[in-house]
Amino acid sequence: MEDKQKILDLLLPALQATRNLADLVGLEYREDRELVYVKFASGNQKIANVACDSGTALIRDVIEQIV
């Protein structure tokens, strides 16, 4: 079983290094709902559905759903 929160923790600095997501402050995986809560410095939040995702699909889905 992949550690999805660990994958998100490693992904966060890469996304913060981009122009579009420089204001990203957090990625929190909720296993019970299979959702990723995406937090921005402005206080805004987005939610990405990552149900049934593998680690690589998780990365793709988070980026597609928040950009």
Report on the architecture of this protein.
With 67 residues, this protein is of the alpha+beta class. The chain has one domain. It has two helices and three strands; from the N terminus they run αβββα. It has a three-stranded antiparallel sheet with strand order 1-2-3. Strand 2 and strand 3 form a beta hairpin. The longest helix is centred in the first third of the chain and has 13 residues, at 4-16. The model has no long low-confidence stretch (mean pLDDT 96).
Looking at this protein, list some descriptive labels.
3-stranded antiparallel sheet, globular, 27% strand, alpha+beta, 67 residues, 37% helix
SSE order, as H and E? Answer: HEEEH
- Rg over CA atoms, rounded to whole Å, is 11 Å
Lateral arrangement of strands in the main beta sheet: 1-2-3
Tell me the total number of β-strands. Answer: 3
Helical content, roughly?
25-40%
Number of structurally distinct domains: 1
Secondary-structure-derived class: alpha+beta
Using the alpha-carbon principal axes, give the shape.
Answer: globular
Low-confidence stretches: none
Please state the average pLDDT score: 96
Query: Quick one: biggest sheet?
Result: 3 strands, antiparallel
Percentage of β-strand residues: 25-35%
Distance between the termini: 27 Å
Write a short abstract of this structure:
The protein is an alpha+beta fold.
SSE map:
Layout: H1 4-16, E1 24-30, E2 35-40, E3 45-49, H2 55-66
Antiparallel strand pairs: 1-2, 2-3
